[in-house]
Design goal:
It contains twelve helices and 19 strands. With 374 residues, the chain is an alpha+beta fold. The chain has a domain at 251-342. The longest helix is centred in the first third of the chain and has 15 residues, at 3-17. Bound molecules: S-adenosylmethionine (SAM).
């Protein structure tokens, strides 16, 4: 067995042992499809936050390509960052394309429950690795993959061809789906969406499934929805899933608002018993519920800040919380924490999600409580 095959087998064994990869068809796909072919070059994060290039002649190329980790392939929507990284050794920037973490890919592919003959639309082609897994199991004639970045798509198409797959690859805005290939039995979003796009509802066949992540800085959710009569209804999955957002769903206002919160004069300043970790760390259990109450907030660390597009902000340092703007966001988080405890600390998989053309909301099982998406 060559080195790549050995490392791949080890990765697959670990995904199977962790219970995230179960269906023998997907196990076989992960065993057979060579991830490194889709990752001739990628960027790894250094402790100082800068990104360092890894090319196929790097001694750790294969080990990194077969680690259960995201491999970033583009920063700031601009391929020049890669050229610059090669020239200078490291660059800074925000990831805008990648091969996602194999664990989350496996969770989503299992949740997709695609059967032979199902037509699948993948939104976010990225490196093409996930499209190759879909082709391996379903056949290339069943797979359509769309990416907004033509350069990213061209590289993915080439990598797919070199691995022997020729799915329909489309350069375009996945928020609009791809009507010529509709209806799809399965829609898989591999970039996060702030709300389920109307085109996905229209282009999914009756009884078909949408699996995607909802793009929220606090309380992101991986959802699996069945489409019927133009509406999608389903569950938040127990696993936490975070993806880079669909381009148009990025929080364009966030950087400036979070920067302002560093030095802004607070309307109130007081102590709090609610820790920043409780609100921001998915492992703490409350984070998903906090996200329902806080809505579309942006988050930064050191010191921890929250900001909302309406101008509300929080600065949390030690046990002291400063707040400003039209709404006291930390008061909202504290009230949500009290409600969460009163409800018996429900976990994320106790929530349903419904998307219709006129509105989208989460709902807690066994209650009449709902939380609309903004
Ligand atoms: C996490 S990567 C996808 C990973 C990919 N499935 C793979 O296996 O490598 C997210 C991708 O979504 C793409 N993207 C962002 N906004 C998009 C949009 N509006 N329509 C289609 N693709 C989009 C980005 O260009 C990026 O390549």
């Amino acid at each position: 067995m060559d080195v790549a095959a050995h490392l791949r087998a080890r990765l697959v064994d670990s995904l199977v042992a962790a219970g995230v990869l179960r269906d023998p068809r997907w196990v076989d796909a992960f065993r057979q499809v060579p991830r490194h072919v889709f990752l001739p070059g990628f960027l790894v994060r250094r402790p100082d936050g800068a990104w360092e290039p890894v090319t196929s002649d790097h001694p750790d190329h294969l080990a990194l390509a077969y680690a259960d980790d995201v491999c970033v392939t583009q920063l700031d929507n601009d391929d020049r960052a890669w050229e610059q990284a090669l020239a200078t050794g490291a660059v800074t920037g925000v990831p805008t394309s990648s091969s996602s973490m194999p664990t989350i890919m496996a969770i989503m592919l299992e949740a997709l429950a695609a059967r032979p003959g199902d037509r699948v639309l993948e939104v976010g082609t990225g490196t093409g690795y996930n499209a190759a897994l879909l082709c391996h199991v379903l056949g290339e004639g069943s797979v359509t993959s769309i990416d907004v970045d033509p350069g990213v798509l061209a590289r993915a198409r080439a990598a797919l061809a070199s691995a022997g797959h020729h799915p329909t690859c489309v350069a375009g805005d996945g928020e609009r789906g791809h009507a010529p290939g509709a209806p799809y039995d399965r829609v898989l979003g591999t970039c996060a969406v702030s709300r389920i796009p109307g085109a996905w509802l229209e282009q999914t066949a009756p009884g078909g499934l949408i699996v995607t992540t909802l793009n929220r800085a606090v309380g992101a959710g991986l959802v699996r929805l069945t489409v019927r009569d133009g509406r999608a209804h389903g569950r938040v999955l127990p696993e936490d899933g975070r993806f880079m957002p669909l381009r148009a769903h990025r929080q364009a206002w966030a950087d400036e608002a979070l920067h302002r919160a560093l030095t802004a004069t607070p309307t109130t300043s007081r102590t709090t018993l609610l820790s920043a970790r409780d609100v921001l760390d998915p492992a703490a259990g409350f984070e998903f519920f906090a996200g329902l109450a806080l809505g579309d907030v942006a988050v930064a660390g050191d010191p921890v800040r929250l900001a909302h597009a309406d101008g509300s902000w929080v600065r949390h340092r030690g046990a002291v919380v400063d707040q400003g703007g039209p709404r006291a966001l930390w008061d909202v988080a504290e009230a949500a924490h009290r409600q969460w405890r009163a409800l018996g600390r429900p976990r994320r998989d106790r929530f349903g999600f419904t998307a219709t053309p006129s509105g989208q909301h989460f709902a807690l099982d066994g209650t009449a409580l709902t939380w609309p998406l903004p």
